[in-house]
Amino acid sequence: MAQVNLEQALVAGREAVRRYAWREAFELLSAADQAGGLGADDLDGLAQAAWWNGRSDQCISARERAYALHLEAGNSRQAALVALAVAKDQFGRRSSSVGTAWLNRAQRLLKDEAVGVEHGYLLRLQAVMALEGEGDFERALELARQTLEIGTRFGEPDLIALALQDQGRTLVANGQVKEGMALLDEATAAALSGELKPLTTGIIYCNLIGVCEQTADLRRAAEWTDAARRWCDRLAIAGFPGMCRVHRAEVIRLRGAWQEAEAEARHAYDELRDFVVEYAAEAQYLIGETRLWRGDLAEAQDAFRQGHELGRDPNPGLAMLHLAEGKIDAAAKSIRRGLSAERRPLARGRLLPAQVTIALAAADQATAEAAAQELGELATTYATPALKAQALTAEGEVRVAAGESDAAVRSLCEALVLWREVEDPYDEAKARVVLGSAYRAGGDVEGAVLEFQAARSTFVRLGAALDERHVAQLLAEAGDTEAQPTAGDPATRTFMFTDIVKSTELVEAMGDEAWNEVLRWHDQTLRSLIARHAGEEINHVGDGVFASFERPERAIDCAVQIQRTLANHRHSHGFAPLVRIGVHQAAATRVGLDYRGKGVHEAARIAAAAQGGEVLASWHTAQPCKFPLSEPREVSLKGIAQPVQVVSVSWR
């Protein structure tokens, strides 16, 4: 019987690998491995599945065993390929000595073999080490060219694409941006058209987005991220694991989807903290910066601290956090510390805008001008729209402080055009604030108010609490008597509460480890859906989520999609927790990132009155609704004097 089960698991596991169903493949091949052990090829499949699921230890273990089996069978070439994969995994974990040992094994195995594809992959890893570890651009470029020659000679499309993108990355790092990006685009087009293996596609996409971030080429990053999403949909892949999630989080965050970006970064951190430490640290930094933008200073500081402990310099985020706290001297010291430790031009480009802002807050005009000048020189060298916009915005800030309002207006108007081009709403709004200040300094109060109002509208939409309060003050100073209510005033929102039904019993039945895995999947799924429907996750309440939406139809659409997603997962995977959802539109008061008031309590009580798998909404919230509704009924809510009419939303 065990043998039959083993055979069934093997067949199903191999089929799952072929379909790129990585979670399913990992479960099936792990079961087959426990039942009777796997051969070298199936261990490779298990290693791939473990990698895509962020399971570093299982991935490396499977590859080490595959290596031993290939050696035993006298297959030196295949053993060398596996050794190279283990070396890359160990380098990712910062185990450089172990990684070097495995690299040496691969070199020794291939030393007396005729040149083949395996030698190309060896050269490729050496090129990456020369570029990323040594900064030796000349050697990296030569090794990448040799890799391309071998890939072309043996007709290996994955190796060709990897070699092209390595050449492109090296050229960009060396200042040859146009030539380098052309090669990166070519490699990524091949990857996302489905010509290459999923792992190669993930590597190429990940590296391209990394270069786009370094050069502030946000439009290119966004275009390729959209293409990557289509590729994932086409192959039924939920998304790239870990490292690519970090890059994707950065792109979607810059486009204004802050909730979705933070959820993606948290998911990436969970996958990477024991896998690729460098990217786990970057994920924490992104969480910190997003929280800072939203005005949650305590959470931001904690995330910056965690990222720093993992090896990521916390600047410019930490410096801007100090500035938000009014600690100007600490902010200046922090950004100077970050810049003194950084020599790479593009990395300095991410720090310099903060130094301009902080120096001006400290009335240090000379430092601000020097930082703006360096940023301008970088924008001239790398010539991407976002870098130019950053440089022009910094120049505008400096000119406003120097009393040169007309020159500032010219720079900032040009910057706004570029920010719109790259679709970065937050930086565009911040540039509008500076432009408004320039108009006001030049005596054009009406122009100032128009810019402040436009900026504030964006800050409200994004949830940028600190910026919203700052621009509200500027509007008041400019005499705007028709400003929208400030943060903290009552506002009408639609609130959604979710809750997992019978979670205590589920924990007891499943055990802590399995339950935590289910809960992580549940949280990630709900966060993503809330963000896609323009909702704002306020906080976690027990085993559920409290979210806010501007419009009731978006909240109901989101609730329906949550139930459908859980039902589909239940159908395809056998289990998903049963969730009840309540939706209610009411007035409430914004306090920091939270909402308070009777309406919030009513929404929570409506959710508590729902059944498992039900979307229950107050009657007025569901009018009108594109989904069928039950007949209204009155329910008495705990702690609420008057009963409320509710309807059940049919989502099936």
Structure overview:
The chain is of the alpha+beta class and 652 residues long. The longest helix has 22 residues, at 552-573. The model has no long low-confidence stretch (mean pLDDT 88). It starts with a helix and ends with a strand. Among the domains are: 53-232 and 239-248, Alpha Horseshoe (Serine Threonine Protein Phosphatase 5, Tetratricopeptide repeat), CATH 1.25.40.10; 491-649, 2-Layer Sandwich (Alpha-Beta Plaits). Strands 1, 2, 3, 4, 5, 6, 7 and 8 form an 8-stranded mixed beta sheet that branches. It is built from 30 helices and 8 strands.
**First and last CA, distance:** 40 Å
Mean pLDDT, all residues: 88
Percentage of residues assigned to helices = over 70%
Radius of gyration, in Å, reads 27 Å
Protein structure class:
alpha+beta
Please tally the helical runs, counting DSSP H or I stretches of 4 or more residues: 30
CATH architecture grouping of the domain at 53-232 and 239-248: Alpha Horseshoe
Find the CATH topology of the domain at 53-232 and 239-248. Answer: Serine Threonine Protein Phosphatase 5, Tetratricopeptide repeat
The CATH class label of the domain at 53-232 and 239-248 is Mainly Alpha
Low-confidence stretches: none
What would you call the shape? Answer: flat
What is the strand tally?
8
Largest sheet: 8 strands, mixed
